């Protein structure tokens, strides 16, 4: 099984901050990685697919990078609507998620 | 408007059964792989099962193999998850979701239905 490890588990930030979340796969997954945003009581929302492709209607302040085993999600300027939990997901072999990174108010 | 709406969740005793349904609308349901993903209370996301467009191929996470069965009825635009021999560790919100065309990421999700396994 491919394990996905995110860091940090919790990130405290302020509006306007640049935020970076990392995700590491236990083996190479090429660029078959997605990022999701989830707010309490809501379903996840796809932000990024194929490691760096922005999903339709997702603000351009979100970006993704990486390939192989190391990936990052960057929010260039954190907005009030961005406080949420973020998950990476590999889809190279079956589907596994990272444990999540909660972005909360500093 | 594209939509997925789950139903069928509830409280069930250990060893019991439950059937979840997911009604799709606003897109050509028969053209997409579909899946179930679950989230235990306060925990992360776990892929459970998925099914090919025509139902000919199904995949399951190891922890539910032999207990859960995914199926679909394309004329009814519906996805199902039959859950048997339920355990306390199956307690979770169950989401149905669809694959993004050309990618194996999940681009549309339902609102989820809660399954609680407890005596």
Topology:
The complex is a heterodimer of chains A (106) and B (119).
Chain A: E1 4-7, E2 10-13, E3 19-25, E4 33-38, E5 45-49, E6 53-54, E7 62-67, E8 70-75, E9 85-90, E10 96-97, E11 101-105
Parallel strand pairs in A: 2-11
Antiparallel strand pairs in A: 1-3, 3-8, 4-5, 4-9, 5-6, 7-8, 9-10, 9-11
Chain B: E1 3-7, E2 10-12, E3 18-25, E4 34-39, E5 45-51, E6 58-60, E7 68-73, E8 78-83, E9 92-99, E10 106-109, E11 113-117
Parallel strand pairs in B: 2-11
Antiparallel strand pairs in B: 1-3, 3-8, 4-5, 4-9, 5-6, 7-8, 9-10, 9-11
Query: How does the overall form of chain B come out from the CA principal axes?
Result: globular
Helicity of chain A, in percent? under 10%
Total E-strand runs of chain A: 11
- Mean pLDDT of chain B comes to 97
Give the mean pLDDT of chain A: 97
The proportion of residues in beta strands of chain A is: over 45%
Helix/strand/pairing class of chain A, anyone? mainly beta
How much β-strand is present in the residues of chain B? over 45%
Radius of gyration of chain B: 13 Å
SS element count, helices of chain B: 0
Features:
heterodimer, A: 106 residues, mainly beta, seven-stranded mixed beta sheet, four-stranded antiparallel beta sheet, 11 strands, 0% helix, 50% strand, globular, B: 119 residues
């Amino acid at each position: 099984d491919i394990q996905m490890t995110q860091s940090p588990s919790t990130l405290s930030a302020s509006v306007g901050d640049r935020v970076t979340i990392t995700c590491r796969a236990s083996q190479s997954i090429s660029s078959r990685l997605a990022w999701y945003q989830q707010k309490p009581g809501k379903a996840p929302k796809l932000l990024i697919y194929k490691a760096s492709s922005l999903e339709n209607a997702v603000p351009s302040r979100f970006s993704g990078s990486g390939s192989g085993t190391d990936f990052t999600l960057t929010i260039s300027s954190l907005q009030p609507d961005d406080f949420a939990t973020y998950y990476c997901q590999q889809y190279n072999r079956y589907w596994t998620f990272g444990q999540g990174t909660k972005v909360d108010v500093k | 408007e594209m939509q997925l709406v789950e139903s069928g969740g509830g409280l069930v005793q250990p060893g019991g059964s439950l059937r979840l349904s997911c009604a799709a609308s606003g897109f050509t349901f028969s053209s997409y792989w579909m899946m179930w993903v679950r989230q235990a209370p306060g925990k992360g996301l776990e892929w459970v099962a998925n099914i090919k467009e025509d139902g000919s191929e199904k995949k399951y996470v190891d922890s539910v193999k032999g207990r859960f069965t995914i199926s679909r009825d394309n004329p009814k635009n519906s996805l199902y998850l039959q859950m048997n021999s339920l355990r306390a560790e199956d307690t979770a919100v169950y989401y149905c979701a669809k694959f993004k065309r050309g990618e194996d990421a999940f681009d549309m999700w339902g609102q989820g239905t809660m399954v609680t396994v407890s005596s």
